[in-house]
Every structure is written in structure tokens, then in C-alpha cells.
Amino acid sequence: MLFPYGKVVINEAFYDRHEIRTSIHRLLKAAQSFMLKAPRRYGKTSLIKQTLLDIEQEHFYVDFRKIPRLEVFNMQLMEYIYAQMGLQGAIKQIQENIITFLKTHRTTVKVDAALFEASVELFASDKDEEDKLVAILELLGKLSKELEYPLYIVFDEFQDAVNMSSKIDIYEMMRAEIQHHENICYIFAGSNMTMMTTIFETKSAPFYNFARKLTLAPFEKSELGKEIIKAFRSRGVVFENDALLDTLIDRCGGHPANTMLVLQMVEFKMLDEDIKTITQAIIDECYQAAQEEMHDLVMEYLKEMRTKEHLHDVIFRMANHQKQILDPSSLQQKRKYLVDMGHLRHIRRGEYEIIDNFLRDELIDASF
Ligand SMILES: Nc1ncnc2c1ncn2[C@@H]1O[C@H](COP(=O)(O)OP(=O)(O)O)[C@@H](O)[C@H]1O
Ligand SMILES: [Mg+2]
Hints:
By secondary structure, this protein is an alpha/beta fold. It folds into 3 domains: 17-215, Rossmann fold; 221-293; 307-365. The chain has 17 helices and 9 strands. It has helices at residues 18-29, 44-54, 70-84, 90-96, 98-106, 113-124, 129-146, 170-178, 193-200, 221-233, 243-251, 256-273, 280-293, 295-305, 311-319, 328-340, 357-365, and strands at 34-37, 60-63, 151-156, 184-190, 212-215, 238-239, 277-278, 344-348, 351-354. The strands form 3 sheets. Strands 2-3-4-1-5 form a 5-stranded parallel beta sheet, sandwiched between helices. A two-stranded parallel sheet has the order 6-7. A two-stranded antiparallel ribbon has the order 8-9. Helix 1 packs across helix 2 (44-54) and helix 10 crosses helix 11. It binds adenosine-5'-diphosphate and magnesium ion. Magnesium ion (MG) binds at residues 44-45, 156.
């Protein structure tokens, strides 16, 4: 398949992103921590996976959307720590018999025996999960000091880490520990623009000044265009004229997932009907089919916007080039909300753009 959709994409399925890919290689090689912020479905996870793969770097990866409670995260991190000590499947062994585990590995483990013993003690202790997390992060710091190479830790959808504990401020707590970690490269990614800003970019934020900050832009038209033409050509398929693809990418606003969805529909149609030339009519048909497929998600965006006064109307007026009626300072505040929610991008002073092309289309259709 030329254009996989929905999952993480790597290698042949990974398009564009040359510039930021190179910047990230540099950060990774220097073990410089960074955060990557972008709206949902913009290719954050793919970019992180691809760049780590490029430099052949193994890493710890967690998606906080998938972590139901702190205990689960603690276990995963412990498993990783043991793997770095040269022990695979450690948690299972501990759960079976902690004494045997301790005896078996004490003399063979790759790290200082005291560090290993401390890690096992953690399991026997009756600390609550919050205190365990502090201890585990401490352990991770000590471990990294003993190793000759940096460790790479990816915290994906980091804004959702907050849900792991109602007792403490998880970010304050994590930051307090990991700020002392010298030989660990932390990679944070997040789709919730408001939360990521609160965690990293306000002066009082727990991670303020902790990591470099990167924003993932839309696809770059000319680079992407060339790669797509080449991909189709490898299947013997061509565009009827040069402008067709550019117009499609523009229409999708460089939105990665939406662009790929339309292209996949085009790819399948060409295969199913054994056609070799992509025409305007085919693109229009596939664009419309993709728009229909995304309809429910767009409706959810609108519902989410209606929980705050005026947001829906502000973005509706934007999409339809109608005059805004709010006073300048209220309008500014509403736009800022929409930016934080990941629906608008700030281009330059007073100028904004709707991020999701299918949302924009829905808003335009609604005015007729
Ligand atoms: N560089 C890319 N090349 C090709 N498709 C991409 C790229 N980035 C994102 N996509 C498309 O967007 C979808 C979502 O990507 P993903 O990495 O999961 O985004 P995020 O982590 O920002 O939600 C992918 O399944 C793919 O269809
Ligand atoms: Mg992701």
C-alpha cells in the first residue's frame, strides 16, 4: 500500500518532513530533550518513531492515552529499567518469586548490586504508587549514570499523564526528579495544545525551559508533491496534469492524515478499476468520500466548540469570510481558545487559518 492511513507510518510510507527530521536527528544525537506539539493526526508519533529508527536508537515508549492508572506506567518503566540492566521479562519473574529473582540475578546483573537490590526492594515495599514513581525515576537517574550511553524516553500524548493520579501534581513531581537526569533524552509529544502550553510554555509551568520546543507544521507542498508523483509512478499511475496534485494538497491544507486518506482512496480506486491516469473527477470523488468518512469526527469538533460561547460562530465566520462581530479583545480571546484546542493556526499578526480542511468544508457547506 502506498498510503497507509491511521496507524504510525515509517519508511516507505513516511513522506515529507525533511527539515524537521534532520533537526530531530541533531537533537537525538546530542541527547537533547525536546517536546513536539501539533494537532491530532498531524504525524507526531510517526515522526518520532521514524527519527529514532533513522539513528537506530532503541527507546522506552509510552502513550499516556493508553495508561489507565499509575501502577501500569510504573510497571512498564520498571520493565524497561530491568531490560537496561540486562534482564528480560523481569516483572513476571518478580511476581512469581521475588526471593528467587533476587538470588538468581544479584551476582550477574549488569549494574551495581546495590542498585539492583534497591529496585527489588521497591516491589516489596508498601509505598503508594505516587511514591513508587518518585523512587523509580530516582532509580532511572542512577542507572543512567552507570551506563556509558544515553537513554531515550518517549512520553507521547503527555497531556494525558495528568490522569494517572488525583493525589499529586504528576508534572511537578516528574520534573523534580528528571531535571537531575543528565544522560537521558526525554521526548515529549502532545496534541492538546492548551495542556502542552500549560506544561511547557508558561513561566510558572513545571517543564518551563526544560526541553527544546518544536511545532509540527503542515506538509510541505513541493517536497510532498514530488514524492507522491514518484509513489504513483512506481505503480504505473500518473496524474493527468501537473496542477491536479498541487490543488489537492492545497485543498487539504497540508493536513497529513486528511491528505493521506484522500490519496489512499485514489490509490484503491486506481487498483479496483484498473485505471492508470488520475483525473480531476477521480480526485473530487475521493475527496468527497474522505470528507464523508471524517464527518463524525468533524461533528465532534463542533460539539466540543459549542461548550464555550462564540467559538463556533467565530470559526464559522472565518470559514465563510464573514465579518466578525465581537469586539477586538473578545475576538482575540476566542481565537486563542481555538488555537489552543488545535482548530486554528496563528499565521501572523491578526491572521489565522483553520487546521482541518474537512472542518472548514463543513462550516462552508453549513452556510448554504
Ligand atoms: N510523514 C507522514 N507521511 C505519511 N503519512 C503521514 C505522515 N505523518 C502523518 N501521516 C498520516 O497521518 C496519520 C496519523 O499520524 P500519527 O503519526 O499517528 O499522528 P499523531 O501522532 O500526530 O496523531 C498517519 O496514519 C498517516 O496516515
Ligand atoms: Mg500520536
